[in-house]
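Possible regression after last week's pipeline update?

I re-ran a chain I had predicted before the update to compare outputs. Posting the input and the new output here so someone can diff against the archived version. Not blocking, just want to make sure nothing changed silently.
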Amino acid sequence: MCGILGAYGGETQISLQQQLELLAHRGPDHQDALHLNDLVLGHTRLAIVDVENGQQPLQSPEGRYHLITNGEIYNHREIRQHMPDYPFQTNSDSEVIIALYQQYGPRAVERLDGMFAFALYDADTDSIYLARDPLGIKPLYYGWQGDTLYFASEIKSVHHIVDKLHEFPPGHYYHDGEFVQYFDLKGLAEGTADDPIPSLDDIRQNLTRAVRKRLMSDVPLGVYLSGGLDSTIIAAIVAQDIPNVHSFAVGVEGSKDLENARAVAHMLGTQHHEYIYDVDQILAALPKVIYHLESFDPSLVRSAIPNYFLAKMTREYVTVVLTGEGADELYAGYHYLKGFDDEDTLSDELIALTASLHNCNLQRCDRMTMAHSIEARVPFLDVDFVRQSMRVPKSLKIHPDTQTEKWALRQAFSDLVPDSVAWRRKEQFSEGAGSNDLLVAIAETQISDAEFAAESAAIKQQTGIEIESKEMLLYYREFDRRFSDKARALVNLWRGETVHPN
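New output (post-update):
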């Protein structure tokens, strides 16, 4: 995992060293840059694969192509096997991007299996090629200042430079001045309409493959374990391949997540670690959480706080961690989804939920782990598993009699997951970790009724944003202190409605 930063075309206004420092947490192992023609490429590296030789920017043997990338390419070994004549110079998973581009041009991205955001420069044609993975697991932002295109892994490194900032859309590449969509989630779902309905065994086998694919690493690896269904399934699969794997849980003293995680860790035989935090630690960490999260959305900040502490502890033991993001969106894990009676309407809502992950749950997952220089991997969002999950009918996601959500996952892994976990009620991470009430109390003590009324009215008049609570105002204040209005425009606010109301 890494941080990337670049500028292309025209006169750059970028102070590369200064801006790269803002991404140093994403890659503490190595930092380097390339200045060539009207191009600047900067990279901060967290070494995961080919630790000794994988420094970036990478260069093709003849010096024509230059690459910076953030992420992991899980099928890089298979790609190498199919390109025996290419003179690979490293064992880095990223180097296959250059080889594929030389053979397939911008369609090369369609042959990658992984999570990624990258920039590739062709010195002969003076052209830039940018791409982001299908679901937006890895972040990428871009904007123009005059004729110069700027791009970066995080908002904080470019928001003050560009005229307007944009999120690079997942499943797209940029080439010859145009954005091209190479992956469409709704199209993927429609394309599976004639496929057979997966059996529970099919679901189990495919998710197991997705997990094992993500065990590729030259550094220590662990699992997040909240004691809920999703993280327990992932941890159980990993524990079959890595005995005594490290597992990590977080919460306030006496929280449900800690209690449940202990029981699961004991059953799986993991090396289990806990981080217990209190109100003083929340107050001290909140500015850092919002700075790294790059959001003031209350639901996102709430869940980011325990994740921030969790990643902080995890970094003491491992560099790569597997997490459970994506299961709720694919298998109808949210309570409100039980109100969808029609198969097609539920399917549309799940597609919309999955497509929106890049600027909510995945943003939190990436930023909180990267704040502590950890790479997070999300097996449930393996594209093959997503494709298969689109074919699972409503009756296997929400049981028609008991209304149990994620029913197919519970049944497919029933022998690996204890009943106390398999049938546990779905909770938000911050709810299970026990921090929700603390955050509301903090806001109440710091903001008076008069302050809330005056500030929320002023913010609405200036920005159009409805500040709905003192808690939200607390987060907004900190965000506004750190970021510009261009960054604020990218904040996704979850209002609790359905994502796909039609």
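Follow-up from reviewer: compared with the archived run. Residues 497-502 have pLDDT under 50 and may be disordered. Marking as no regression found.
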